[in-house]
Design goal:
121 residues, alpha+beta, four-stranded antiparallel sheet, 22% strand
Length: 121
């Protein structure tokens, strides 16, 4: 009984992660967002939504090194590719988790009663 509960939990975990990834991919609004730094008006820097014509400087904030730059269009295409990949991975995880959970639940219902316990007709 405990093993089946653990097994059910292990199948529900990828289902939850898959639902999270699918929700994130489905709610992507298409506006490019810069997680690095957008330089505007000389010394002013910001991160966040980009406007056409802006350039995003990508940084690895762990060590402060530049990872390159992306234009508005490049960032939009990169985000679309990430959303597509997240949707695919999320769908696979969700289907895998739900199929496994259904198999565990169906196996629980079909399992014979342990020896020594009377069964109802």
């Amino acid at each position: 009984m405990r093993f089946r509960g653990l097994l059910l939990g292990l199948f529900l975990l990828p289902a939850v992660v898959g639902a999270y990834l699918l929700a994130g991919a489905a709610t992507e609004d298409g506006t490019p967002r810069c997680d690095g730094i957008i330089e505007e008006y000389g010394d002013a820097e910001r991160s966040g939504p980009m406007k056409p014509g802006e350039t995003c400087d990508l940084y690895d904030f762990a060590d402060g090194r530049s990872q390159g730059t992306r234009s508005y269009e490049q960032q939009r295409k990169a985000q679309e590719a990430k959303a597509s990949k997240d949707g695919l991975v999320g769908g696979v995880c969700l289907v895998y988790g739900l199929a496994g959970a259904c198999a565990v639940i169906a196996g629980r219902r079909a399992a014979p009663a342990p020896p020594g316990k009377p069964t109802l007709p």
